[in-house]
Automatic annotation (TrEMBL):
It comes from Photobacterium frigidiphilum. This is Penicillin-binding protein activator LpoB.
Length: 172
């Protein structure tokens, strides 16, 4: 009976998250890294900006110093909501930056599930590209459903950390 209960518990816990994280090539931490706008496919406004901030902090903790594209300087709500204006400005900025690697990705989920407990649900894809060739060097995706009193950003920290564990970083 204990074994059945243990197996059911493990199956239940493993169903809460899913990750596809291949090992990356070896990246030098002292290279020039740039975080570009992420695509927000979730129903939560500004989820991409939240993920970019968390990603920047977690990369710094791993010894990678990044630069982030400049924010739009506008009060026009239509431009703020339209991701294409942000991407266009970020690409103009990137052309003037010395960069070795570009980090981008997408947010598929960033919300609380409806229901009594309202558990957080997070889904994120990260991608590292060569700034020179624009070839994708590494891509990983992960999703996680958190527990009742956990925050969405807390679940997001866990997903991003799991994804970044797949990056091989050479410290100098």
């Amino acid at each position: 009976m204990k074994r059945i209960l243990l197996a059911a518990s493990i199956a239940g816990l493993s169903a809460c998250s899913s990750y596809q994280v291949p090992d990356s090539p070896l990246f030098a931490a002292n290279s020039s890294w740039v975080i570009m706008p992420m695509a927000n496919h979730s129903n939560t406004p500004m989820a991409a900006e939240k993920v970019e901030k968390i990603l920047n902090a977690q990369l710094f903790a791993k010894g990678i110093s990044t630069r982030v594209y400049p924010e739009l300087n506008t009060n026009n709500l239509a431009i703020i909501i339209d991701d294409s204006a942000k991407r266009k400005q970020a690409n103009v900025w990137l052309a003037s930056q010395p960069a070795d690697y570009i980090i981008t990705g997408s947010i598929e989920e960033w919300h609380y599930k409806s229901g009594l407990d309202g558990e957080p649900a997070v889904g994120i894809t990260l991608e590292i590209k060569s700034a020179k060739s624009k070839i994708t060097l590494w891509r990983a995706t992960g999703s996680r459903g958190g527990w009742g009193r956990e925050s969405v950003s807390g679940a997001g920290h866990i997903v991003i950390d799991e994804l970044l564990d797949g990056i091989n970083i050479e410290q100098k």
